Amino acid sequence: ETWNQRFFELLSLADDGVKRGDVFAELMQQNVFSKALFDAISFDVAPDKDFLEVEMMLDDNLVLLVRRNLIPGGGILITFADITERSRNQIALRESEQRIRLITDAMPALISYVNKDLCYEFVNREFEKWFNRSRDEIINHHLSDVLGQKEYQTLTIHIARAMLGQAVNFELEHSRDPDNVRISNKTYIPHFDEHRNVIGFFALEQDVTEQRRTARALKHAYDYMEQRVNQRTKKISEINLQLRNEIEERQLAEIKLLEAKREADQANESKSKFLAATSHDLLQPMNSARLFADALNDLTLGDEAQKLIRSLSYSLENLESLISALVDISKLEAGLIEPVLDDFEIDDLITNMVNEFTPQAEGKGLRLRVKTTQTLVHSDTYLLARILRNLLSNAIRYTNEGSILIGVRRRKTGLQIQIFDTGIGIPQDKLSEIFREFNRLDAKKRRHDKGLGLGLAIVERLASVMNHTINVRSVEGKGSCFSITLPYADVSPERVKPAPAPLIDRFNDQLEGARILLIDNDDEICKGMETVLGSWNCNITSVQTLEELQEPEFLTELDPQLIIADYHLDDGDTGFDALEITHQQLDPHPPVIMITANYTNELRQKVREKGYSLLNKPVKPHKMKLALSNLLSNAKA
User: Fold this and answer.
1) How many other CB atoms are found less than 10 A from the CB of residue 489?
2) Exposure of 287 by Cβ count < 10 A (0-12 exposed, 13-18 middle, 19+ buried)?
3) Is the pLDDT of residue 110 over 60?
4) In a designed cystine with 591, which of 214, 223, 509, 631 is the match (CB 3.0 to 4.6 A)?
C-alpha cells in the first residue's frame, strides 16, 4: 500500500515501475538478502504472533532490525531500521567487558561492584573463590544474601558512607570458621553518574591476616621487652651489677639481630644480581667445551663416536640454554637491563634470524619461510634479536612437521612481526599461563625437553622493558602465532645509520685461507678456536697477552684480514686495550669481532660505537661462521 525511498535503498531494490497493489512477496525476490529477509518475517515463521522482530546482517556488514506488526482490521506494517552502529557498539562493549574480566580475574584481590539497590553486578574470580560460590549465585543478589546478615549488619555504616559519596577504607575480621579467623582490608569507592548522584560503589578487598598477625607479634615482643626493662629498673639499687650485665647481653643480642636482619636484606637484594654477576665465570668454560664439541662433530668418525658427540653437543646446548635463561631472568629481576633504542631496517635483522635458524629447522625437516619488508623501526636491535631467537627456538622445538613463517605486517599502531608455526598448539585456557616463570605445557609428555620454562617469561619482560606489545593466538593441534608490535622510526631514511648487511651463506668462499688473529687469555679457548677455524680452512694465529702483540713486526708481517678479541684479558686488560695496539700498527684496520660473557648495556654500546661486531659466550660455531663470512665479504667489497 505504501513505502518510502529508504526501504529500497536499505535492501538495494529497484523501484522502477513499483506501484500500489504490487505483490510484496514478488518485490522481495530481487536479490539474495531481500529474499532472506522476506523468508525470515513471512507467516511461515511464527504464524501465531502479531509482532515479530528479526536482526539480519547484509553482505556489506549492514545490520537491519526488521519488525512485523499486524494492523487491526487487516494489513501488515513492516519497518526496517539500520542498527549497524548499535550492533558494533554492542560488540565493542562485549569485548571491553571481556578485557576487564581478564584483568580483574588475574588480580590477587576481591573486586566487586554493587549497585544502588545493594545488589552485586560484578565480581572477579578471587571473589568467587573467597565465598565458594559461582558468579551466577552472586550476581543480582543482595549483599545480605551473599555476606550473611551478621557481616552485612557490620558493614551497613560503611556502605551508607559510600552511598553518600565518601571513599571508605577499613579493616574487618571474618569469623565464618572459628578456627580460621581472617582479616581483610576493604575499600569502597562511590560511583557517580553525570549528575554527581551515587549509583553504586566499587569494592576492593585484600587479605591482610598475615601482616596483622606479624604486627601484633612484634608489638607483643616490644611490650614484653619494655615490661622486662621496667621490672629490672625497679631493682637497680639492689642488683646493679647483675642488671648491667643483663643490659649488655640484651644490647649484644639486639646488635646481632640487627646484623642478621641487615645480612638477610643484603642476601635478598643480591639474590638476583648474583647470577648476573657470574656470567663470565659460568660461560667461559662452556665456550671452550662448545668449541671442542663442534670441532669433533666436523671430524669423520665412527657411528658410535658420532652418536656420543651428538649427545655431548645436545647436553651442552641444554646447559647453555639453562644458564642463559637464569642469567637473563635474574638481570631482569634486578633491573640491570636497559634498552638502547635506535632506528634501523627490520629487513636486515629478520634476514639474519632466518640465516641463523635455517639449519636448525632443516635438521628437523621443517621449512622456514619469510615475508618481510624494508621498514624503519625504533627499537633495541640486541634485545629484539633475543626475543625473536626465543620465539623461533620455541616454534622449531614444538613443531614436528610442516613449516614456520616469519611475516611482517604494517599496522596503524606500528610494525607487527609474526611467527607462525604448524606445531602442537596451545589450549585456550593455557594462553595466559605460558608467560609465567617456570611454566612448561605438557612437561610430562616432553621429558626430553630440559628447559626451565623461562623463555616466554623472558620474552614478555624484554618486550615490556622496550614498551613493545606481545600477542599470541593458537589452535590446539594446529599451530600458534606469536607477534610483537614495534613503533615506526620517526626519521627519514637518509638520517638512519645503516644496519650491518644481512649475513649470507657463502662460508667456504669467504673463509678459505682467511688470515685471522685471535686475542684471548684462555689457553683452552685458543685451542678450541684454532681447531674450529682450522676446520674451515682459515689461517688462525692466536696471542694471549698484549706483550705478544707488541713484538716488532708481528702485526705487519701477519697482516690479519679479521681480528677476534675476547673482552676479558689478564691483569685488568681488556680487548679494547689490545685493539688500541692493533689500530696503531695496522692501516687500514681489519674488521673486529668482540667476544664476551658480559651482557651489560654499557659494553654493548661501547662495541657499537667502535663499529665492532659483538658475539656473546658461549659462541655457537654456526653463528660465528655467519659473522666471519659477512665481515670478510664486506671487507672485500
Assistant:
1) 21
2) buried
3) yes
4) 631
What predicted TM-score, i.e. pTM, was given to this entire model?
A: 0.45
Question: Is the preceding peptide bond at 618 cis, omega within 30 degrees of 0?
Answer: yes
Q: If DSSP codes are grouped into helix, strand and coil, which group holds residue 559?
A: coil
Dump pLDDT digits (tens) for 550-568: 988 889 889 999 999 999 8
Q: In order of start, what are the domains of the chain with their CATH numbers?
A: 5-87 (no CATH), 107-211 (3.30.450.20), 342-495 (3.30.565.10)
The count of other CB atoms within 10 Å of the CB of residue 527 is 15
> Which is more confidently placed, 161 or 228?
161
**Alpha-carbon span 622 to 149, nearest angstrom:** 71
Q: Which amino acid is at 252?
A: L
CA–CA dist 207, 419 (Å, integer) = 41
Q: How confident is the model at residue 626 (pLDDT cuts 50, 70, 90)?
A: confident
* Res. 515 pLDDT band, cuts 50 70 90: very high
* Degrees to nearest 5, angle at CA 250 with 248 and 254: 115
For residues 62 and 10, the answer to whether their CB atoms sit within 8 Å is: yes
Residue 33: exposed, middle, or buried by beta-carbon count in 10 A (0-12, 13-18, 19+)? Answer: buried
Longest dimension (CA), the chain: 124
Q: Is the torsion defined by CA of 300, 302, 305, 309 positive or negative? A: positive
Contacts of 313 (CB under 8 A, 6+ apart): 293, 294, 297
The packing angle between helices 303-334 and 240-277, to 10°, is: 130
As a whole number of Å, the end-to-end CA separation of the chain is 84
Strands 613-616, 376-379: parallel, antiparallel or unpaired by DSSP? unpaired
Query: Residue 465: left (phi > 0), alpha (psi -120 to 50), or beta?
Result: alpha
DSSP 144-161: HHHH-HHHHHHHHHHHHH
Strands, E, within 71-221: which ranges? 76-82, 110-115, 120-123, 168-174, 182-192, 198-207
As a residue count, the chain comes to 637
Return the C-alpha cell found at 50: 502479531
- 276 touches 329 (CB < 8 A): no
Q: pLDDT-based confidence at 490, cuts 50/70/90?
A: confident
Lookup: cell for 574: 681488556
